[in-house]
């Protein structure tokens, strides 16, 4: 990450160039030298260090407003070093990222910007990927779309179905699915569990916002007894959802024929990733990325089907860190997927962020919300 001193140095350079240019223009216009002192509001008279400190407390919207107050502040606010600092400072704190807002930059920020990076618009990139800005620019339906949505509400639609799978369902101390089942204030049950699939999965219907029904088919790697033993003994399980090349490899080749029909019928998928910092090695990410690609194989279903990734930890406390959602998206190589996707932070204990993920999933499955 860029150090604060590097940013201040860049801002000071911009300030010096700005007033050098102003002085030269004044000398050309009236032949008299102009003072390098800043004229105007008291904010302009502060040191660059103090100006930078103030900007670190402003929201992206307020920074843009500040840039519109004068040519001086426009120059300062447009500094690519400043916005690169903000981008890498805030990325680990963001709770979600999707296929439209994934940063088009390297996740490791160098101490200085090379020539190619100086041409990159870090300000535009920050405003594109920042969750607060994403929500602000979210598409608002036009009048005719609202009327269409009203009439469509009278037309019965089939209940969307989603398949949920992933190591976060089994490796965490607290069961995400168990918490969902016992949290009617968050997601009320709308239907009893359907038949078991060889003890590995079943379908449960829920109601979102008391009106939108949807079904989740939970697909575990194996039966409950084996899952619990593997969790307690920290063993690695080969998921029975997939077919593998040999007995040594954990990289899947295809979906187990037993689950082909389920994966073809669903409207989308929910992958539960283990986002705790104590999780396994990079080899685990490679296996999980391969699982997602096998599930989303175009031969199995349309590439328009969305993939919601729940970046899950057991509980969130001040002394327990999580893997940032942007890092999860990078490790799972989601940017190379043709399908729409979203990574949403959540916690198995409180289900924070779960409804935001469900909302995105239903919208991208064609449900009018």
From TrEMBL:
Segment forming the signal sequence: none
UniProt-listed SMART domains: FBOX (SM00256)
A Pfam family the protein falls into: F-box-like
GO biological process: protein polyubiquitination; SCF-dependent proteasomal ubiquitin-dependent protein catabolic process
Gene3D superfamilies: 1.20.1280.50, P-loop containing nucleotide triphosphate hydrolases
CDD domains listed in its UniProt record: F-box_FBXO4
One GO cellular component, as annotated: SCF ubiquitin ligase complex
InterPro entries linked: F-box-like_dom_sf, F-box_dom, FBXO4, P-loop_NTPase
Organism domain of life: Eukaryota
UniProt-recorded name of the protein: Uncharacterized protein
Organism per entry: Cirrhinus molitorella (mud carp)
Lineage: Eukaryota, Metazoa, Chordata, Craniata, Vertebrata
């Amino acid at each position: 990450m860029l150090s604060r001193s590097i940013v201040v140095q860049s801002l000071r350079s911009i300030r010096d160039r700005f007033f050098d240019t102003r002085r030269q223009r004044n000398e050309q216009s009236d032949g008299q030298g102009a003072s390098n002192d800043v004229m105007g509001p008291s904010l302009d008279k502060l040191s660059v260090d103090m100006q930078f400190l103030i900007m670190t407390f402003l929201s992206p919207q307020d920074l843009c407003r500040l840039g519109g107050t004068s040519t001086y502040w426009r120059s300062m606010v447009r500094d690519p070093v400043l916005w690169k600092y903000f981008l890498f400072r805030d990325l680990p704190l963001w709770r979600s990222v999707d296929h439209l807002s994934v940063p088009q930059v390297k996740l490791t920020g160098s101490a200085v910007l090379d020539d190619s990076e100086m041409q990159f618009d870090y300000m535009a990139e920050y405003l594109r990927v920042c969750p607060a800005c994403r929500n602000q620019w979210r598409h608002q339906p036009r009048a005719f779309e609202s009327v269409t949505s009203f009439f469509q509400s009278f037309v019965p639609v089939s209940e969307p179905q989603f398949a949920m799978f992933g190591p976060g369902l089994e490796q965490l101390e607290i069961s995400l699915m168990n918490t969902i089942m016992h949290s009617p204030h968050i997601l009320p049950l709308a239907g009893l569990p359907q038949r078991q699939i060889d003890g590995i999965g079943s379908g449960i219907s829920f109601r979102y916002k008391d009106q939108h029904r949807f079904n989740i088919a939970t697909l575990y790697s194996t039966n409950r007894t084996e899952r619990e033993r593997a969790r307690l003994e920290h063993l690695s399980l080969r998921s029975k959802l997939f077919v593998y090349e040999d007995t040594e490899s954990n990289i899947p080749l295809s979906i187990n024929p037993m689950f082909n029909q389920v994966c073809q019928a669903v409207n989308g998928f929910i992958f539960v990733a283990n986002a705790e910092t104590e999780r396994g090695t990079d080899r685990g990410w490679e296996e999980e990325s391969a699982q997602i690609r096998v599930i989303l194989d175009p031969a199995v279903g349309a590439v328009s089907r969305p993939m919601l990734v729940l970046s899950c930890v057991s509980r969130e406390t001040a002394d327990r860190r999580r893997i940032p959602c942007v890092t999860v998206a990078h490790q799972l190589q989601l940017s190379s997927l043709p399908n729409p996707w979203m990574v949403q932070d959540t916690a198995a204990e409180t289900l924070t962020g779960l409804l935001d993920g469900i909302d995105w999933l239903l919208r991208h499955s064609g449900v009018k919300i």
